[in-house]
Amino acid sequence: MNRRELQALAEARLKDAQALFQSMFKRVLVNELLVEGQRLLEALARNRFPMVAALWSYFPESMEWRLVIVSPVVDRIGPLRAYKRIQRVLATTKPSLLTLTDIAAYGSASQDYRNLRDIISSPGRLIAGPEVSRMQPAVAVEDAYVYQLPA
pLDDT averaged over consecutive 10-residue blocks of the chain (151 residues)? Predict the structure, then answer.
C-alpha cells in the first residue's frame, strides 16, 4: 500500500471508531437538567418571552443534549439578542447544571423548526422509528424530551 491508501484506511478506521464510541457512550439527560429546564421555561414565560415549542433534543454529532426553545423573538430581534434575553432570565433561576451552551434557540420561521414540525404526526405527538425515515428522510430526532409543542 502506498502512503495515500494507508492514510485513507486510517481515516476510515478512525471514523468507524468514532461512530462506535458515539453509539456506546451517549450522554445521559439527568433529571436535574429536566427540572432546571422547566424552571427556565417558566421564568421565560413570566418575563413575556413567547415560546412556540420547547424540548430537550439529543444532537448525535456533538453527543450533547440541548434545550431547544422555539420563539418568534428569535425571528423578530435576531438570535444574539434572543440569547442575551435568555441568559438574563437563566441567571435569575440560579441553575447548578444548565448553561447557555446547553440551549439552542430557533425562530418560529426557521428551517430547523419546520423540520421538527414535519415529524409531528398529530398535535402533541412525535413519531419515532421507521415511520420517521419513510416520512422525511432528511429529518431525524435521535432522542427527545418534550415540554411543549404546538397544538
Answer: 83 73 59 91 95 85 87 95 97 94 93 74 41 36 63 54
